[in-house]
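User: I'm new to structure prediction. If I give you an amino acid sequence, what do you actually give back? Let's try with this one:
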Amino acid sequence: MKSTPTLECVWEARAELAESTIWVDEERALYFVDGPAGKLMRYSESEGPSEVYRHGGVIGFIAQRVGGGFIAGMDNKLYKLDPVLGLATEVGCPEPELPHSQFNDGKVDRRGGLWAGTLDRDCERPVGSLYHITKDLRWRAVDGGYLCTNGPAFSPDGRILYHTDSMRRTIYRFDLDLDSGAIANKRVFVQIDDSAGLPDGMTVDCDGRLWVAHFGGARVTAFTPSGTVDRVLRVPAPNVTTCAFGGANGSTLYISTSRTWMTDAQHRESPLAGSLFACKGLVSGIPAYAFDG
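Assistant: Good question. You get back a string of structure tokens that encode the predicted 3D arrangement of the chain. For your 293 residues, that looks like this:
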């Protein structure tokens, strides 16, 4: 019998759109962004919450760098970000011909390669692409035609890549060659029902289950590697954006949420919308890898 997990609100952050949760084990802290507000947020188990950096535009994702700091997708460009010094150094712009595109979500594979997706800011044109970015900061689009890219995630052995088109409510599964950074054999992994909201950010545990946040669905669902539902965690906020394992032994699932696009009545019904939650007593997750560039 599965144990009953303990879900608690650890920070009433009132985030517009919290995204890109990553656990930095050296600091015993979780970082995430409030994307439209351009904020980089930090939650430390010992020091509590803080805002550590602010950008004048949108921050889509962050990923830890081997050399310290982060690689970040801000607006439609890539930056090296040092929140301690408050410095962001532009290192690339994959889509200069698409002025209304921006980065949305990104993750690092076990070889230190970065996978990041773009989208049209209104999510109306299918111009979003998935990019593979190497340590020498070269990039190439490996898949395209997305309305809203989201949630790269990897199987424990690194041979499977999961990627989402949120607006199409579809999570795809690819075969991944870590040596070449190539993906193949794209197929539908899960199609989310309309009543369950939009699939958003996601992560994988040590047993290969894919944990998916549901924007508009007030839940996180764990899918087995075969695509069947293994567990559903209800969250007291309608717009659940992403999740990441952290804490001792990676056994705490941190869950971020959003306040955006909610009515006054919905805010009254869900006062914890935009908060950061932690769920203990689940399983252990795979640590976030650092970008080797």
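You can read the tokens as a compact description of the fold. Here is one thing that stands out. The chain is about 0% helix and 55% strand.
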